[in-house]
Amino acid sequence: MISNAENFGTMVAQARRALGLTQRDLALAINTGERFIVDLEAGKPTAQLGKALAAAKAVGIRLVDAADTSESRQQRSML
Question: What is the C-alpha to C-alpha distance for residues 79 and 67, in angstroms, rounded to an integer?
Fold first, then answer.
């Protein structure tokens, strides 16, 4: 469960390593600087959300709303 910037950064780092990517590779893939990836993986709480989400997507992390149950999705689809 992601509860803070450090958890998120650790998840990104683990996924990146599992793909065999360097921090530089990931930075180039999302068109940002390597320093951003270093800070993100270190859990820097001021990392830009848009870039952080792009990094997560690039390494295959899919973020979902844990409160979004199948029941609530069905109710919204009926509206």
Answer: 19
